[in-house]
Structures are given as C-alpha cells and as structure tokens.
Amino acid sequence: NCRIMWNFVIYCSSIFRSHKESYAQFYAVAGALLQQLPNMLNHITNSVKSILYELHSLKILRLINAIVMERSIDRDFLNNTVMLLSQVGEAAVRSFSTDVTSVFVLCCSTIFSAHITSLSKSPVVLEYVFALSQFLYQLIASDAVTQELLAAVLQIYRNTEMLVFYKTDSFKTKMRQMMSIVLLQRLVANDMSTLANDMISTLYTINFADFSAFFESDLPCFVNSLTYIPKESREKVLWGIRPVTDMPSFQSSIQKLLKDI
Q1: Which of 98, 114, 154, 180 lies at a CB distance of 3.0 to 4.6 Å from 218, suitable for a disulfide?
Q2: What gap in Å lies between CA 18 and CA 28, rounded to an integer?
Q3: What is the pLDDT of residues 140-166, one digit of tens each?
Q4: Residue 240 CB partners (closer than 8 Å, separation 6+)
Q5: Under 8 Å CB-to-CB from 129, ≥6 apart: which residues?
Q6: What is residue 25's three-state secondary structure?
Q7: CB 108 within 8 A of CB 136
Q8: Which pLDDT tens digit goes with each residue over 165-221?
Q9: Residue 243: strand, helix, or coil
C-alpha cells in the first residue's frame, strides 16, 4: 500500500504540471486510497509502516489542498472532495502524526475560506461540511490539541466567510451552543491563555447571527453547569450579564464573566 501511494503521489504531481483536466482521474484514485486510511491505521501494528502510510496520506492531502485553492475548480470535484475529507476526518483527527492532522485542518481552512458560500447552497453537501465542522470541534474540545493546531482551527471559525454557514439551521440547532460552551470551558480553564482573545473573537463570530440565543440560553447553561460554585453565586454571575452586540462590549462582557467566575 505504501508503494502504491508513493507512485500515486508522483503520478499526481505530473498531472498537476501538465493536464489539470485530469482532476477526475485524481479523485478516483485519491478517494480509493484515502478511504482505506481509517482501517489501515487500525490494522497496521508495525509503527514504521504506519508512519509511512500516514506520510503518503499527508502528501495526498497536500495535493488535494493544492487543487481546492483554485476557486474555479469543478463543482462536482469540490463536492466529492468535501465528502472524501469528511470520511477520513475521524482518522485524521485521532492520528498520532500531528502533521496529518495539521494538513487536514489546512484542507478544511482552504475549502471553507474559498468555497463555503457555494457549498452551503446544497443541502446534501452541507451535511458533509457539517461533518467536517464536527471533526474540527473535536480538536477544540481535545485536551491533547497543540496550541498551534487550536490556533489554526479558531482561525477557520473566525473567518467572516463562515457566516453563511452559521446562519444554517444545521449549525444553529446542532452545533452553535455546543461550540460556545466548549470555548467558554477552555477560557475558564485558562490552559491556553495566549489564545484567550482568539477564543473570545471566535465566540463572537459564531454567535453573530443570533446574540440573543447566546446570552439567554448558552451562558446560563454554561454558568449553571459550574456546580463547584454555590447556586446563589451562580445567580449573581448571571444577573450581571447584559446582552451586547458590538465586539468591544462583547469582549468586555466575557472578560467580566470570567473574572466573576
């Protein structure tokens, strides 16, 4: 499998230098190989072979990223790429190779920043975008995530191009509160203090479409989950929260909340 993937990387590189219309060929082979990634990582016990397999997976992900950077790529190819990434996302997120996880995040960043408006128009493709977003959420919630990876994921969610995704029913009903709470938990834990402003900015962006839901539902839910704080003290903390919509006031409000907690 490693030899096949290595030959494939060389083959694809030659395609990119000469025949960009051959992207369909690329997807057919890339899809078949990358879809093996989850099972291969489960069954390969030899660590050297596993590292080699991840190395070649890494190169294929970089090739995919090179393609999706072109805003004029074929719609079907783009949709298939999002579907493929959503299928290997679980393996990429739990990979012991931070390089594979990093390039997976890079691919998501490229796709979301360049194509999120187009992708959000199709309900079917939107489900794959939602799946990718859930894998990125797993990185935010993970205790093992590196500061560099967390910063990269936060950058994706802070991108204003993502607002079209945040307005979808899927995000608002299934993910907005979950993401808000995990960001607040990280802020309270103060384990990534250098990224505190990035987290607050991300909180602001993902809730931009509905600040009332954040202040009236998410914050009370989060504060009431802090059972180590006496009930009367939690009520005082909540009483001091006032809904705001501009960024400076929002940042001040969150900082005051953290100080009160």
Answers
A1: 180
A2: 18
A3: 988 888 899 899 999 999 988 899 899
A4: 256, 257, 260
A5: 82, 112, 116, 119, 120, 165
A6: helix
A7: yes
A8: 999 988 999 899 999 999 999 999 887 788 999 999 999 999 998 899 999 999 999
A9: coil
Could you tell me the CA-to-CA distances from 85 to 21, 79, 136, 261 in Å, in that order?
A: 21, 10, 12, 39
Handedness of CA 179, 256, 251, 197 (dihedral sign): negative
- DSSP secondary structure string, 64-133? HHHHHT-TTS-HHHHHHHHHHHHHHHHHHHT-S-HHHHHHHHHHHHHHHHHHHHHHTT-HHHHHHHHHHH
* Buried/exposed code over 31-61 (b: 16+ C-beta within 10 A; e: otherwise): bebbebbbebbeebeeeeebebbbbbbbbbb
* pTM to 2 decimal places: 0.77
How far is residue 235's CA from residue 35's CA, in Å, rounded to a whole number? Answer: 50
Residue with tokens 């691919």: 107
